[in-house]
Predict the 3D structure of the following.
Amino acid sequence: MAPEMTDIHIRTTGVAGRITLARPQALNALTYEMCLAIEAALDQWRADPGVAHIVIDAEGDRAFCAGGDIAEMYQTGTAGDFTYGRRFWADEYRLNAKIFNYPKPVVSFLQGFTMGGGVGIGCHGSHRIVGQSSKIAMPECGIGLIPDVGGSLMLALAPGRLGEYLGTTGARMAAADAIYAGFADHHIDEATWPDLIRALEGGAACDTLAEAATEPPTGALSSRQAQIDQHFGGEQLGDITNSLGHDEGSFAEDTLALMARNSPLSMACTVELIHRLRGPSLSIAKALGLEYRFTYRAMEHGDFLEGIRAAIIDKDRSPKWQYPDLSVPAASVSKMLMPLGENALVLEETPVNALKIGFVGLGNMGAPMAANLARAGYVVAGYDTVVKEVTGVQMANTAAAAAEGADVVLTMLPNGDILRTVAAEVLPAMASGALLLDCSTVDVDSARAVAAVAADNGQIFVDAPVSGGIGGAAAGTLTFMAGGSEAAFAKAQPLFEIMGQKAVHCGAAGAGQAAKICNNMILGATMIATCEAFALADKLGLDRARMFDVVSTSSGYSWSMNAYCPAPGVGPQSPADNGYQPGFAAELMLKDLRLSQQAAEAVGADTPMGAQAMELYRQFVEDEDGLGLDFSAMLPRFVKQGRPE
């Protein structure tokens, strides 16, 4: 058992392992020592047959736990020592995961304020009880952090876009709202809590808690869901603030006022984090791992120290945030959420992965993908016909040598013919049951042909073309569209989580390529339409910035407009602001559009807009000056070109 502490009382009473937070004068803020003591107790009770369930409560009526005690983090961080904070967060997150995965029921009684670190202790158990005084929130953006301690998992699971709203505003939830959002389970009159705890200590089953539950007073969130979904459905923070800024209603005004107090960098990273988590690959380990990427960098590169100074130390409530105009570059978000390599969070429940990886095709996309895998601790052997060195990768002399003894071989290649050739070389070198994971964009027939050869060879195959460009490959924010069996996709999943933000299992072999070419056919056509519209706006005398403000919050909304605007100086940073140096080259768009039309012809699909987009990009790349430029450089092309006679 952990040593007795005055800040926390840990004991066994009857059949209950009992934890009582005992710092009411400090709103039961969680210290590092309290975290370690709770973890030690949980470890002991896990295998104790005399302990049926865990009960966590707190002294005082103002708070269950208002967060973590961050004074020591500030003192060490301002002295240039980031080690203490990083160790605190890593150990705290390990505790959060243990509570989430605990094999016995964990009951928490959440009176008053439950915020930040209190959510990590009180909201991951099996039975979360709220009452009439409960106020739950994730206000970390207000001090330059992001919703952490596993709170991002609950935000990603909340209805609609409620997670983005709660995460960026720090809005407080009373009992009904906390239950609606997924942070609590039952509302029970607080006057009855002592008797319920005694009953649990005496052997009552946790199921009796549901019998004691009553209907809480009506909350506000469910009635605001439609407005929240309307305004918080954008891809980036700028989309959200744009939408709110064009609404003159009281909800938008109040929401912007809440957000104005918070760190723009933190809010932008919160939106990105929730988007990466939302989906079938969501897990507590993934949520905590992504959170730790941010908190690891929070003192050195984020707004955390400034946020604490303004809120706790000087108490002037006037933090000097980075990006005060709310225009946070995508590169800054990616920097805060990049993989940490050997410094990545390790949870006790996460086994060490000893997979050996081969990687063939180390060009502009493949090299940073392979480097991210190496930084994550994998042994990576690589081969490329041109590139001879990649950080962390052991270079081989042939593709077969890179594949020798590998559990997984990744390929990132120019076309289907080369994929077939490389597969014929590497598959014989791979062990039975090994995975060939192709991340190239190739024709569907080639993907299916290689899958068949792999199956005949006793191996598994996944075609997983990517979206996100060179920047996404470097930042580990790619999206993978995967085709293959469930077992093959499951084997690839841990690698997807290192190299990207999202992986979608689209179906059997070839389905990933099908999804990619359909997606990029839409992208090519919408970019052309966006560029045409800007060129038309110029000729009509419409200011580009004002057009963006209208279209980005109206029915013309698209990724091409809102996230990758082709007009320089308008919207978020994009290749247009860098002389159209390619993030996604026009010739690669032409390649993908040709693949889409090849597939359409094979199955008899009528795709006239896709065909016209292909022809326009063909002219741009082959007959004009588009080779080597970004695919959004269609805008200056249309500006220069008048209407055909």
The longest helix spans residues 511-539.
